Records
---
Amino acid sequence: MDISLFGKTINLPSDVLAAWIFTGIIGIVLVVYIWKKKKLPVIWEYMRTTNHRKIGTLYILFGFIFFLRAGLDALFIRSQLALPNNDFWVFQSQKYSEVFTTHGTMMIFFAATPMLLGLMNIAVPLQIGARDLAYPFLNAVGFWLFFAGGMLFNLAFFLNKAPAIGWTGYAPLTGPTHTPGVNTDYYVFGVQISGLGTILTALNMMVTIIRHRAPGMKLTRMPLFTWASLITSFLILVAFTVLAIALYLLMFDRLFGTNFFTTNGGNPVYWQHLFWIFGHPEVYILALPAFGIFSDVISTFSKKRLFGYPAMVISIVMIGFLSFMVWAHHMFTVGLGPMANTFFAITTMTIAVPTGVKIFNWLFTIRGGVIHFSTAMLFALGFIPSFVMGGVTGVMLSVSAADFQFHDSYFVVAHFHYVILASTILGIFSALYYWYPKITGYALDEKLGKWHFWLFLIGFHLTFFPLHIAGLQGMPRRVFTYDPGEGLTAINFIATIGAFTMGISILCLFWNLFKTHRKAEKVGNDPWDGRTLEWYVASPAPEHTFDPMPIVEDIDPLWVAKRQNRPMRTTDHHRIAPLSKSSILPFVMAMCLFLLAFTMIYHLYWVSAIAGIGVLACMVIRSLTDERKSFYRSINWL
Amino acid sequence: MKKLAVFLLLPLLAGCSSITVLDPKSTTGEEQAYLIWFSLGLMMIVLVVVFVLFARFVIKYRYTEERKNDIPEDVKGNLKLELTWTILPIILLIVLAVPTIAITYNQSPKMAAEADDGIDIGVAAQQFTWTFSQPNGKTDQNKLVLPEGEDVTLHLSSKDVIHSFWVPALAGKIDAIPGRTVTYEIKHLQKGTYRGKCAEYCGTQHTNMVFEVQVVSKKAYQKYLKEMK
């Protein structure tokens, strides 16, 4: 659609126009709501907060909003592919490429990763008896960087400049010669900024877990989710740094004419190496925290200690370690030679061993227990068979000669959706139902939760199981249509039905959230008869927790205390807790970086310079403030 | 052993013979299909074990009114069991690794153009067409004619971005990358007309970067070579 504005004609496709109108309506409704209910102070508070639970909530909130956006993209993809030679709305060639690029990028970087970081933010300090993360200010910076990156990436779509390069952004297609527009720059800068935030949060998490555990909480007594968060943070530190470097080099190629990823002195395959050295650990960055969630949930709702705790921890560490040695299995068809193809096939197979150990230990945790089918537990139980199905196709993919057929076909699409949805997404849902009382003080409705679970699980298998066959039938990924004669019609139609079933299940979740907050029925500290420290503090977790500080004497300290009918022992001797003081600086800093990136995209370097100075100024101000001063004075240190 | 495995999987094969990749038209493709079946067979063992245990445990240990006040026994672990499910998968994977290595070593695309026997075909990819050149210099766009029963060695290159050459019915895919030539051998082709596609996203018209492979009799192939260039 052409729109005339200030004498200029702007071409606005109908999908972008629809998005503007939709967002506009939502925006007006929100503004009216905020005004009427006088919620402005709440927003101002959250903009300045450095409290771990509140930042965690923000992470989950915005992660979820981006999840909806990316999910909507998935429905567009499936609508276009429902029938052969289909012409659904605008989603062919350019627009289709944009929509699968956004779907992948948003799901990985702006939905799954931040929602997991949010859960870590909320649960890890509560599980180990810390009053906050080690660096509350840095935590806020991390979140607002993610927010800025996500907003920048989304902005591209609203300006009709969404990237069309696939979430993997393979060079030389992403180079200045083949995608000269600003579209690809939005990908580079959006992912870069939010990745920076992710690295900062990972550092924070590591220091918190190492330094701020309650007395008696030895490493060997930590809940599995905390263990998984620790290992994940190490993975993030290494993997996201590699990604940052790759994006940095790509930025130079695009903006300043260097040749890192061109054939003109560089090599496009370098991008693939860098990307997958990040990309494969990223798979485990998404999966490990989910494994941690399932360990805690399965143990809680089986009323039984986790089976083989040491093996569970060791296998997480092993998976984390091995995840850095398998990246080239994404590149079997590049022609790295028989030696590399064999080596990476073997290392990839090895990962199946610690993963298998985990599966069997979960099964034997259930064995002999009393299984309570709460919604959280249902998601955890649904995970086991679904994930094993994704796991076995993973082993099949590691067989490199067979991978020549699987690679970049719908078989791979089916495989990675099986593993990521089964682990990360089911994990996030499980955690949402499990920890919702700790976040808001209310428990989500169980009946609607069950609708959500069953519809999602059925939709998930209905979508992705047939897609294995589509791949073997010869359907490559990232194509916007197929011929009626290829025998793909029925498969694709079933997959589309499945995708919409998942969509409906998300509506159930919405209704559930609405209903729960309508009812506003407080639940106590410990609605699930929990085992670990987070169920010892109030729901929702207050800003000042663990006073007095409990002493941890077991892997499941609260459970043991409850069984022995005694309160938990407490102490006044513990490490000084981090101080969380509100500040608007993290927000300002992220907005400066947003402006910097936005002006870099449009080559307005002098504005970028000013924005850069803004970031630097924030850093200087921060360096000169010490919120602990009053505390030091109170104990006469100064 | 190979024959035995194929024999065991025969009933399954019959049901899936219409699936392109599992009904290959070259020796190379047959080896790949064999690996797919073999790995799937091994993995089915894992799948069945997990599903059976899962179903049994979930049903047997579910919460019921009678078990309302049950507190499960405090089990920390079981070394023997845990060793079992560490060692058995390792053995399973070794069984899988042997044919994987054997076939992969044979089939892997190579960087340097080596003197292979068989017909040398040049494959030049470019957004969004394929140019195939025959040994005698004849070129054709989006149409590749090959003789039945022969081995072919593909020499793949790209003029712009990365593409991937894939004829699902014949064999696995291989990337065409700018700035280098990769060779890939497909052995013993069977007669027929097959659909070929670009399998690496290469731009907005990626979907339309398709081609046709015609494997014809040797006589017809010779005739094709002599036709007007």
---
Amino acid sequence: MFKKILIANRGEIAIRVARACKELGISVVGVFSDADRDSYHLHYMDEALWIGDSSPQASYLNISKIIDVAKQAGAEAIHPGYGFLAENSNFAQACEESNIAFIGPNSKALSLVGDKVASRNTVQKVGVSIIPGMQGVGRDTKHFKEMANKVGYPVIVKASMGGGGKGMRVVYSEKELEASIAAGQREAKSAFGDASVYLEKYVEKPRHIEFQVLRDHHGNVVHLFERECSIQRRHQKIIEETPSPAIDEALRNEMGEAAKKVIEAAEYTNAGTVEFLLDGQRNYYFLEVNARVQVEHPITEMVTGVDLVRQQILIAAGKKISNKQKDFAQRGHAIEARIYAEDPENDFMPSPGRILYLNEASGPGIRVDSGIYQGWNVPPHYDPILSKLVVWAENREIAIRRISNALSNYVILGIKTNVGFLKRIMETKKFREGDYHTHFIDENESALIRQKEKIRNVLIAAALLASEKNSIMTQTGYATSAQVETTPWQELGGWEICKH
Amino acid sequence: MEYRFDHLNETFTIHLTKEKNGFRARFRDDEYRISDLEIQENMISFTIHGERFAIYFARDKDKNYMSIDGELFTIKPAQISKSGARGISTQSDNSVASPMPGLLVKLPVAAGDKVEAGTTLAIVEAMKMQNELRAPSDGVVKKVNFKEGDQVDAFVAIVELEPPASEK
């Protein structure tokens, strides 16, 4: 077993990984950029090393610097978390060349699953369906037109090296096709440095269902059931749940076995996630393999009782998966809500800044994977994820009520967050009935608008606070500013008060 | 007493009267009886017509951050200027500002440049998201308040414009 692991990440996931390491008796080395000198994850590390200035390129994406500090600290393995270098095969290879274990898939499998076209070809060979479309990069306009006519409109143009919605264009008719290809190519070029795009059938009202898989270096492979991740904004997941309300036992087993086949065909090792799109007729199509620990991994942990990060470390250390498929079961229901520093009332604009007050949710069945603290200044340089609120309950209905209450009591003041928006989603009829798909947010815009009545209570509260401050002033005559600062409500000075 | 607050682009007025067992508040055309007021550090709770509300709050300079049932509100004491104009608009007064704080990654214009409506004046990046700020109308760049690589706050003018020469 490793004695020391370097965690090449920041925020909540660095903390999550550090916890698993410590439980295994492994010491942890953290890294930080200039912007993260005061970040919460450093409190969980046995030692912390500086890796560069605030830009991600200079720090968390800086392969040679991270390898250098890992060597300097004597780390035997690196856990990349998610994002940054997690799915970078050059990084995995650099680790392999430096005799450092990369806690993730081998670099060969990583580059295979990272190439969408190559991975689709591999998957098809083992009999798992993919969305009908091109087998490779589109050659010319004629090729795109022929394929679009063959699979039928609507079609979607996608970046070959892409992800996160970049370079994607939905096309409803032939007359939009050429312009969409050009736009997709431009976006792909600027986002990934590669303008290659391909075309496939566009599945309408799809549900995004993914399967968690583990495969060790001895050929043992198990799946840990599904996660439904159809609630997305701008192709980013914001709420995930398991079990999915859309699949039954038979379909679950079939999709789980398909996921295992995909992982075996890619000769993949460690934890991975196989993503599928599910249409309204129980057809499922392979999308891609996410070769990392997923942001939403906790919901799988809640229903299966398996610590996925611990499993990642054990597999990387060469251990065998000791349990068989039949040993795993889903118990109860889990939901995750991602808390982001963004403003849902202003087009989800990022909202970095200082956290003036923090009260994180707690209680039975509630887990918070958080990377923040009161007084911390959320830097503008990185992903806006602040924390993840995860609940477990006996069934879906109770889980929804539980997360809804927990969101009410998850208070982050000083910056904008999506907490209220997440709660509004939980309260929609469609979500409660499990009747949703990936366009849920766009299609339910009106149901997700903030209720106007809430402002009344806020204004009354503000007036009461100002009035109480005023009455204390009257009681004590002209209080000095030092005296005024002695109690919190006395600090609420500066109100515009008009006597009538 | 009357209290006036700004929230987003609106000004709201609350009339508050102290009574024997609490307060009477007037908001728009309705009156509310408020009782059992309790104020703790960062939390205020009270009862309106038998219903209990708890609101978390924190203050920074003139801004009050408040949270009720998970919903966040930022309110300020009402600003009343001589001209009657309030708040900061990103486009109305011939200046262009970012709707979010972030890093100024591109600033392709300089003072004296002629720009057409829709020309990119600046690109601000925060949390992996890029925001292009475009000219709201044809004009001439009067002043540039920052340089590439600067950190900018939300709603602070980055580029100031003036109408094209012919319209002066």
